[in-house]
Amino acid sequence: MKIASIQLQITDTQLASDRIKKTDQLLDKYAGYDFFLLPEIWMTGYNTFDHYLEEAEPLDGPFVAHFAQKARELNAYLFAGSFVEKFNDHFYNTSILFNRQGQLIASYRKIHLFTYGSEEGELLTRGTDPVTVDTEFGKVGLATCYDLRFPEQFRKELDRGAKMFLITSAWPLTRLAHWELFNAARAVENQCFLASCNCVGINRGVVLGGHSRIIDPWGNVVAAGDENESVVTAEIDLAAVDQIREEFPQLKHRVPIE
Ligand SMILES: NC(=O)CCC(=O)C(=O)O
């Protein structure tokens, strides 16, 4: 599987339409790849909380339609990151995954909303269900940024058969050490691949940390970004998951703890 994590730069002066245009251009540049990732609430800007409600869209709105078409054009899986979803009178931080035909095969509403210096928890409703979904490469589990701190969500996804975690993020540079640690820990403890997509740039005074990663089930960082806009790429084979689980069967040694 050829995978590309599009580590977008977010600045306060960009228009949403320009962000989409730039993203389309970056995606087109990597046509031929099998799997793409984009960051968290990148169209609005994660820290642009005063725009959340006005820019929110339903799941059958233009944002989702646009990237369904893009996945179809690219003939690739596209984890288009997250956007502010409006459903009835509620708003969610919802990430979306399309298959090669442009079908929306999974949507995930962020469970652990971030409240530390963030308005996310006041504006949005939290999701309740972890999400896993089959792809032609194996089952993947979805998660969003702050979720990384909650290993039980990833265990649940593992127990549902996940072989790779896809993480969409807007994680700040000030806690880069935590980001690197949790990316690796979630991969190693579950013997899964993990691919993450973080943004870079300065959004409402918050310096975003980048360092998107692709990590194998042994914890090796196969590819990683820095603090600049870039596309982090790798070629991986999810068969390595079964191989490593067989060679080092830690998951068989779990003891139920009440
Ligand atoms: N967007 C987020 O969820 C930020 C999470 C974060 O900054 C942290 O966990 O630290």
UniProtKB/TrEMBL annotation:
GO MF terms listed in the record are:
hydrolase activity
Key words, A-Z: Hydrolase
Top-rank taxon, per record: Bacteria
Where does the secretion signal sit in this chain?
Answer: none
| Protein name as catalogued | Carbon-nitrogen family hydrolase
* Lineage of the species this protein comes from: Bacteria, Bacillati, Bacillota, Bacilli, Bacillales
The keyword Metal-binding belongs to this UniProt entry's keyword annotation = no
- Organism, scientific name: Sporolactobacillus shoreicorticis
User: Which family is this sequence assigned to?
Assistant: Belongs to the carbon-nitrogen hydrolase superfamily. NIT1/NIT2 family.
Keyword Transferase attached = no
Tell me the Pfam families matching this sequence.
CN_hydrolase
